[in-house]
Specification:
heterodimer, A: about 90 residues, 3 helices, B: 4 helices, 2 strands, about 65% helix, about 10% strand
């Protein structure tokens, strides 16, 4: 049962990833692409979590934590770049 | 520019981030983790502080610290590798010793590869912070 559920979840997450890649390539403006990259990070985190459930291991949870922190910092930096422009470290 | 929400989240998240990076660094010998990912975590925490509270790059004060952290970490890793060449026979050969810790009554395993990992940690931390602060201040 759990194997079937995780397989269906993998398929749905892969479809979500395809939509994100479509927005990343076609996306008319830069904020669209930034949001697409952030969503790709989130979908990757979900895929790692589903894989952990499927394999019954807890060793990849640190990878989830690392990916979420890096995605957060990257998105904040890109948001400040889009709002501010030349200097993102300006107060 | 930075909102109150972002500053408050930074103040709450950065100590947890530093503890998590230390945890990754110290357990990286036998489990997933290690110097590279720990340095990445530490530098992202430092960059979070800079993004929230502002930063101006200068070679005199903080910029020079991370620049020399990079060089010092590289030298530390190289010297640990050369120590393997002097004592054990080959470059980067690791020495292991088991130490009985007095209070918790356990045998801890100390390896010289951990010191190499500390060097990698310093290199990654210095390179990431220097690179990101220089890139962030680039005039468009």
């Amino acid at each position: 049962m759990i194997a079937l559920v995780t397989d269906i979840a993998f398929i749905l997450l892969a479809v979500a990833l395809l939509f994100c890649f479509y927005r990343l390539i076609v996306g008319p403006s830069l904020p669209d692409r930034v949001v697409a990259i952030d969503t790709i990070t989130t979908v990757t985190i979900a895929m790692i979590a589903v894989y952990c459930i499927k394999e019954g291991t807890a060793i990849f949870y640190d990878a989830i934590l690392v990916l979420s922190i890096l995605g957060f910092v990257g998105t904040v930096a890109m948001a400040k770049f889009l709002a501010k422009g030349d200097n993102i470290f300006e107060q | 520019m930075s909102t109150v929400i972002f500053k408050t989240i930074t103040r709450a998240v950065v100590p947890l981030l530093m503890i998590f990076s230390l945890y990754l660094l110290l357990r990286g010998h036998q489990l997933p983790g290690g110097g590279f990912i720990a340095g990445l975590m530490t530098s992202s925490g430092i960059l979070l502080i800079y993004l929230a509270y502002g930063y101006r790059f200068d070679w005199k004060h903080r910029g020079a610290f991370f620049y020399y952290l990079f060089s010092g970490g590289l030298a530390l890793s190289f010297l640990v590798g050369m120590a393997g060449l002097f004592f054990g026979g080959t470059f980067l050969k690791s020495g292991v010793s088991h130490v009985h810790m007095p209070l918790i009554n356990e045998d801890w395993e100390f390896a010289s590869a951990a010191i190499f990992d500390f060097g990698v940690y310093f290199v990654v931390c210095g390179v990431c912070v220097t690179l990101m602060t220089l890139l962030g201040e680039e005039k468009a």
